[in-house]
Design a protein that fits this description.
The chain is of the alpha+beta class and about 260 residues long. The protein is built from seven helices and 14 strands. The chain has a single domain (about 1-255), classed as 4-Layer Sandwich (Deoxyribonuclease I, Chain A). The protein has helices spanning about 10-15, 20-25, 85-90, 115-135, 170-185, 190-195, 225-230; strands spanning about 1-10, 30-35, 55-60, 70, 80, 95-100, 105-110, 145-150, 185-190, 205, 215, 220-225, 230-235, 250-255. The longest helix has 19 residues, at about 115-135.
């Protein structure tokens, strides 16, 4: 069994204060994909825990911003940072770890909530990411792209679809992009294991007791090749942990 967790930290230093190492100790994932480090590598608190994970980070050039990481019990064969697009790579948004029989990515798509300029860059990121990801579908090793895509795909994935129909993260063009991603052969594993189940979210605003009332958005995914879906046995959103404004999305694969 291979247990993979994905978590947007909303700052790795803050997440440590909120019990990140306790979560790692108690849940014991084999691989952890992290997003929104909001720290330079030397600022990452350590060590992660007594299990002695191998730690890899791709931080943004801008201080206190973005950044992704991958922690794994097993040492990867290789780690690659970025996708070859300067502005995306300088923001620390895509990281790959290749193992003997699996490729894992940590992905942090831009948010478009701060205005039109960032929304345009978000769509540009998605345009670059889709062909980049597709190359791995036909590869020799199964692949999983874990991370915060900052998009709810269907009305079931957001607590108030009517009110949010013009909100970044639920715009028609963003949702259509997820549809295209899945139509090319990728799988949204969490949803496939929870078909038709409402009120399953991975992010909640800090405002208005949103998490207590479960008024959330499902924007964190394991996007995988079909083989990984076939191997998926359990998919959970670990709402009981308050590590950040996101909850860990953890899937156990029979590999």
């Amino acid at each position: 069994m291979l247990k993979i967790s994905s978590l947007n930290l909303n700052g790795i230093r803050a997440a440590h204060r909120h019990g990140f190492t306790d979560w790692v100790d108690q849940t014991d994932p084999d691989i952890i994909c992290l997003q929104e480090l909001r720290a330079m590598e030397h600022q990452v608190p350590g060590p992660i825990n007594k299990l002695d994970y191998h730690e890899y980070y791709h931080t943004a050039e801008k201080k206190g911003y973005s950044g992704v990481g991958i922690l794994s019990k097993k040492e990867p064969l290789q780690v690659e940072k970025g996708i070859g697009v300067d502005w995306i790579d300088s923001e620390g948004r895509v990281m790959k770890a290749e193992f003997d029989d699996l490729i894992v990515f940590s992905i942090y798509a831009p948010s478009g909530t701060t205005g039109d300029e960032r929304q345009d860059l978000k769509m540009e990121f998605l345009d670059h990411f889709l062909p980049f990801a597709q190359k791995y579908l036909s590869g020799d090793k199964p692949v999983v792209f874990c991370g915060d895509y900052n998009i709810c795909h269907k009305p079931i994935d957001i607590h108030n679809p009517k009110r949010n129909k013009n909100s970044s993260g639920f715009l028609p063009e963003e949702r259509e992009w997820v549809t295209r991603l899945l139509e090319t052969g990728f799988e949204d594993v969490y949803r496939r294991l929870h078909e038709g189940e409402p009120d399953l979210y991975s992010w909640w605003s800090y405002r208005a007791a949103s998490k207590d009332r479960n008024k959330g958005w499902r924007i964190d995914y394991h996007i995988t090749c079909p083989k990984m879906l076939d191997a998926a046995q359990e998919a959970i959103i670990e709402m009981e942990w308050d590590l950040s404004d996101h909850a860990p999305v953890t899937i156990s694969y029979g590999l």
